[in-house]
Design brief:
By secondary structure, this protein is α+β, with helices and mostly antiparallel strands. The protein has seven helices and eight strands. Strand 1 (6-14) and strand 2 (17-20) form a beta hairpin.
Amino acid sequence: MKKEYKIKSYCHIKNQSVWVNGDLAYTLEAEDFSGFAKSTYKSLGLKYPKFFKMDNLSKLAFLASEFIFKEEVLDELENNIALVFSNNASSLDTDRKHQDSIQNTEEYFPSPAVFVYTLPNICMGEISIKHKLYSENSFFIFARFNAEHLQLYANGLLQNGKAEKVLSGWINFDDNNYEAFLYLVEEEGEIKHNTEEIIRLYHIL
């Protein structure tokens, strides 16, 4: 008999606000994402200087994961939590910055600090390093939010013993338009982990 999994917690970040489990956790009127991200980071009381070197997509994913993980008791050595993210813009925001740095032949100076983020899955690497995650991780590119695929993939990882928990969802950043929706799947929780519930939570705001 297959186990039934639940959504233990979830987080939205959009419109300069952070919502955790449907409740407003933080908000700020900021001119751009950079200011909002910096202020949100400070509100969490974190001491992780590497955050300021991340690209926008990684900062968005990092912040959403922190709001979820701060309620979890995580091991200092290793945590068996898989990451399954998706979006429709890939790493386009950073790709543009990298392209700008190489297209001008007179001022040709590609930045390694920018180039390293020209893959969307790097944001998962940043979270994995911070929380010592050595489990499976996958980043999917869809035209729109695909709850069914995420649900099936997460369940497969859990049922096959690839992870004890799965942090899954949508992390999208494109030209200062951003949206994060992450949720934690495990055996404990009050919300059923099925496509209908995932879609409901995604559209809750």
